[in-house]
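Exercise 4. Each item below gives a protein and its sequence. For each, produce the structure-token representation.

Item: DNA-binding response OmpR family regulator (Crossiella cryophila).
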Amino acid sequence: MEQKPGQAQVRGRVLVVDDDLTVRDVVRRYLEGAGHQVRVAGDGEQALALFEQAAADLVVLDLMLPGIDGLEVCRRLRRHSAVPVVMLTALGEEEDRVAGLQLGADDYVTKPFSPRELVLRVNSVLRRLRVPAPPPRLDHLADGDLRLDPVARRARRGGAELALTTREFDLLAFLIAHPGEVYTRAKLLELVWGWDFGDAATVTVHVRRLREKIEPDPANPVRIATVWGVGYRYDPSPA
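Answer:
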């Protein structure tokens, strides 16, 4: 895969989970061709066992698995790990895609898919993990009872630590650092995720998850405001 000048090569340990042998083999070959170390699993039980034996840097996870389905695999991974997850979903499974994103998956690719596109998605997620979205060059960010430490990548609300995924932290840090500014979902994908392509619904789901963690009443948000027809705006607490 062609690299941009000055762009660090992305290599990672990737766990590919799919019950289709052909898909596993094709995805493995393309990812290995891009320099990644790849392990494969044919079902959820095997995937969880392999991850417990040796953690991966990223999981490519099919949602339609025999036995333990992909959503449950994602749910169990999230109990003790913030590992990035790229889901593989069938064309008509919008509800499952949304459910996966709500569980903390980072992105999805719809079957049938181009293996080259999947490699691009994997590389993008890993690159962003290693070079996080620029939270502002400040030691701390604060708004009311929210406190963020971009260096330690820790967030607290009212003294209690918040369990945020990598993307959730980056998005919250970006929004707090740019109060009162409206951003479209496409612009947030570009500035926070580092993607020039992708489904804007990813942003919508991450905003929903953040609201559940930082808003007094998530159904009536006062911090992350929706600007209808445009995008989102962060409204800081009154001084």
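Check: Helices lie at 21-33, 44-53, 70-78, 94-102, 115-130, 166-177, 185-193, 201-214.
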